[in-house]
């Protein structure tokens, strides 16, 4: 049975078991049965191709196989977080916890049993129109993380979702994460997608977020998967009056990644900052889609996505800013910048503004090119070896996104991972003036404060 047939079979069995989300699951199942995964004619999904995973024979693992230790430790020095672990699509550890101020965090399946009304306030805020992957997840998700922050509560310690794929078989995962940030509340959320072996996997993940009035969310997403993995990562955000969002995603590895982001501002004076960084090489593929909807006056949005493509890597960026009639005083900025290191790497960039109001300030831009030859020449004239000069220029290019990460240990670790990622494409000893007795890799520190 192929993966697409498996997902269709799972959706057909979806009944919701009489829960508050049962009508949404049944509706999604009907949509998927009628449309299946044929949506390539839709402009939003034109560049998406997971056919090799859908035609493969993957299995859905149960909760009996989880080789990682519980609790799983994330290897970021000095990063103090409350970790919420998903292993092969299933929540691990204490099912539900109540934090200070009445915040509730834990597994979605348990929350659906104990707090069905709270789950229903966030679940399926976006209809699955023209989105078969969302419909498949809605109908038959395995488990996920549930986070509920009541009004007037600030969670000082960041929450960290660790979604780990580590199975002896080729697997298909479907997880659903629900996040509610109440009025005048603040939350920092870190979301990591990782794989611990080189086995094949396909993850169809959905995260729904509601940010209520005067609330603020910092959302950091990190992806470091093997080359045999596919990741469909969809995030839907609904914002109410005076809400603010900082979203920062970093994709370092993955065979085929789709980052699908939709942000809807349903109240006035909302503020949105969405940024992304992607580094792809070999035969890797990444697609970034960002939809930001301005439906109310006096809202701001800022988008910046930057990528470096090497070898035969392929990528695309599709940004869509919609300013509806009546959304006056809108301020929207959209930018996508890319560097191609080889003549075989490709990127498709499509920033797009759709405006139905005259009283706005909107701009968009896109650039695709190579490293600045004049800057390289300037650096080499001062004794910097060519490979080192290239690495410094690429690092400075990436740092425009990394510098806005507000968590110091996370920012430092990501900078180090980006540095190692960039140097990994170079010969580690080409820029060394010393004759080493071994062929061990040499590490060179980059002083980011001097950039």
Protein described:
With 451 residues, this protein is an alpha/beta fold. Helix content is 20%, strand content 37%. It has nine helices and 21 strands. The strands form two sheets. Strands 3, 4, 5, 7, 8, 10, 12, 14, 16, 18 and 20 form an eleven-stranded mixed beta sheet that branches. It has a ten-stranded mixed beta sheet with strand order 2-1-6-9-11-13-15-17-19-21, with helices on one face. Strand 1 and strand 2 form a beta hairpin. Helix 2 packs across helix 6, helix 7 crosses helix 8 and helix 8 runs antiparallel to helix 9. The longest helix is centred in the C-terminal third of the chain and has 17 residues. The relative contact order is 0.09.
Q: What's a concise summary of this model?
A:
This protein has 451 residues and is α/β, with parallel strands linked by helices. It is built from nine helices and 21 strands.
């Amino acid at each position: 049975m192929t993966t697409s047939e498996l997902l269709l079979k799972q959706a057909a069995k979806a009944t919701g078991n009489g829960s508050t989300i049962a009508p949404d699951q049944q509706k999604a199942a009907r949509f998927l049965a009628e449309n299946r995964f044929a949506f390539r004619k839709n402009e939003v999904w034109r560049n998406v191709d997971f056919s090799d995973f859908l035609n493969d024979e993957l299995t859905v693992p149960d909760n009996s196989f989880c080789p990682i230790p519980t609790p799983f430790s994330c290897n970021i020095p000095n990063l103090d977080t409350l970790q919420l672990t998903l292993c092969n699509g299933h929540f691990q550890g204490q099912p539900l916890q109540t934090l200070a101020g009445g915040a509730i965090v834990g597994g979605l399946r348990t929350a659906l049993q104990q707090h069905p009304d709270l789950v229903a306030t966030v679940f399926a805020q976006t209809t699955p129109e023209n989105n078969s992957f969302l419909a498949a997840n809605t109908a038959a998700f395995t488990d996920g993380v549930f986070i509920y922050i009541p009004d007037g509560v600030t969670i000082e310690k960041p929450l960290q979702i660790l979604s780990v794929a580590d199975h002896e078989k080729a697997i298909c995962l479907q997880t659903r994460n629900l996040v509610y940030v109440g009025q005048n509340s603040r939350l920092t959320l870190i979301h990591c997608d990782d794989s611990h072996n080189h086995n094949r996997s396909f993850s169809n993940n959905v995260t729904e977020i509601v940010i209520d009035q005067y609330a603020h969310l910092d959302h950091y997403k990190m992806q470091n998967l093997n080359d045999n993995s596919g990741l469909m990562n969809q995030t839907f955000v609904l914002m109410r009056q005076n809400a603010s969002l900082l979203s920062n995603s970093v994709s370092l590895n993955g065979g085929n990644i789709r980052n699908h982001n939709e942000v809807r501002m349903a109240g006035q004076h909302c503020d949105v900052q969405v940024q992304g960084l992607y580094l792809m090489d070999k035969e890797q593929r990444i697609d970034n889609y960002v939809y930001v909807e301005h439906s109310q006056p006096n809202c701001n949005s800022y988008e910046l996505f930057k990528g470096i493509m090497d070898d035969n890597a392929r990528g695309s960026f599709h940004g869509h800013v919609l300013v509806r009639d009546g959304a006056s005083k809108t301020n929207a900025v959209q930018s996508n910048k890319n560097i191609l290191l080889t003549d075989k790497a490709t990127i498709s960039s499509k920033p797009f503004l759709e405006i139905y109001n005259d009283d706005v300030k909107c701009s968009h831009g896109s650039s695709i090119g190579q490293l600045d030859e004049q800057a390289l020449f300037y650096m080499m004239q001062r004794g910097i070896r060519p490979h080192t000069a290239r690495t410094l220029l690429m690092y400075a290019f990436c740092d425009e996104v990394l510098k806005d990460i507000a968590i110091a240990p996370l920012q430092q670790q990501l900078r180090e991972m980006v540095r190692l990622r960039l140097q990994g494409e170079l010969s580690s000893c080409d820029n060394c003036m010393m004759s080493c007795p071994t062929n061990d890799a040499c590490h060179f520190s980059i002083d980011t404060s001097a950039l």
